[in-house]
């Protein structure tokens, strides 16, 4: 396995991190940049570097030093709407570490990189001391996403089971213990 350097992003990493994120929303999600969903992608420094309880991790290719993966955490729980009210109540902002932007470039997938990034984010949440839960949501239409999250977390709500299918999103909680 390649030895990727994983570290907290600094100001010099923002351009490379943004490129990974934008490539992912265009290529994998097919949605492209949507301001109401992706504002943090345009300004990751404000979203993740400026707040003490937030973080952005980057993984660097050991061969050329390029950023090939990202993973972020912030203290905002799922908002209602668009998410179901019971999730917003169960995972309130300030007490919830929400995982975001866990993206790996295709050429670097299936090497344990996303799992390592998530482990470091959970460690960050535990070390913070103020988070009581780690939450995320994913679009099951993205190839491999649902299976990956099911392998490390538990489903707390699957919108596909709602009348009309909701947004089609699957919501997860990740255990904070080892």
Protein architecture, described:
The protein has a 7-stranded mixed beta sheet with strand order 1-2-3-4-5-7-6, with helices on both faces. The chain is of the alpha+beta class and 178 residues long. The chain is 33% helix and 24% strand. The longest helix has 16 residues, at 113-128.
Shape by Cα distribution: globular
State the low-pLDDT regions, or none: none
Largest sheet: 7 strands, mixed
Provide the residue-averaged pLDDT. 94
Q: List the secondary-structure elements in sequence, H or E.
A: EHHHEEHEHEHEE
Write the layout of secondary structure elements.
Blueprint: E1 5-8, H1 14-27, H2 35-42, H3 44-49, E2 55-60, E3 67-74, H4 85-90, E4 96-104, H5 113-128, E5 133-138, H6 145-152, E6 154-158, E7 170-174
Parallel strand pairs: 4-5
Antiparallel strand pairs: 1-2, 2-3, 3-4, 5-7, 6-7
Q: Quick summary of this structure?
A:
Helix content is 33%, strand content 24%.
Which features does this protein show?
globular; 178 residues; alpha+beta; seven-stranded mixed beta sheet; single chain; 33% helix; 7 strands; 6 helices
